[in-house]
Write a structure and sequence with these properties.
Radius of gyration: 17 Å
CATH superfamily: HAD superfamily/HAD-like
Organism: Mycobacterium avium
Number of strands: 6
Distance between the termini: 22 Å
Structural class: alpha/beta
Order of helices and strands: HHHHHEHEEHEHEHEH
Family: Belongs to the HAD-like hydrolase superfamily. SerB family.
Largest sheet: 3 strands, mixed
EC number: 3.1.3.3
Number of helices: 10
CATH class: Alpha Beta
Cofactor: Mg(2+)
Protein name: phosphoserine phosphatase
Amino acid sequence: MFDVDSTLVQGEVIDMLAAKAGTETTVRRITEAAMRGDIDFTQSLTQRVATLAGLDARALNDVADTLQLTPGARTTIRTLRRHGYHCGVVTGGFTQVIENLTRDLELDYVQANNLEIVDGKLTGRVVGPIVDRAAKATALLEFAAQAGVPITQTVAVGDGANDIDMLTTAGLGIAFNAKPVLQAVADATVSSPGLDAILFVMGLHAHTFAASS
């Protein structure tokens, strides 16, 4: 199970949306505090999404079109699938932005937040339960059950405080270019520009890696 922002893709989607709304400085400051674990994620997400009120919903597609996979991400997913792994994502980001990406990667499980849109504009609110730290761990348990995989045989990869419960629930929790608060509880830490470095942590050999295209 992968986190999305700053793990499967480069950067933070909420920051990209804030740039469209002209609230980037405020939102980035809140994002950084949340990733460090200085403030509660649910509170921080509510505050950040509120700054997007009035933003044209077309900005979601604009951001989706500019998303860049982390180097090695496609190789990682394809290699894991070749080896029989089920691959999914759970993110505090937004369904409307990542749905095309997750479809392209042919992921088996996707859970994300949903932004409320009324009359073609963001309201500044999230619809439904917020995917927070606890929800990420619950999603991992649900995904494992659906796939028929014991939780001890699962792997979770993330970078921030919001991933703590997910990584500690997984059989193997990997902190990828992560904040110190997550590194402290992870089973393994990877500091590399390429996501495919996690494959070595999982015991896979380079000659078995799938091509990225």
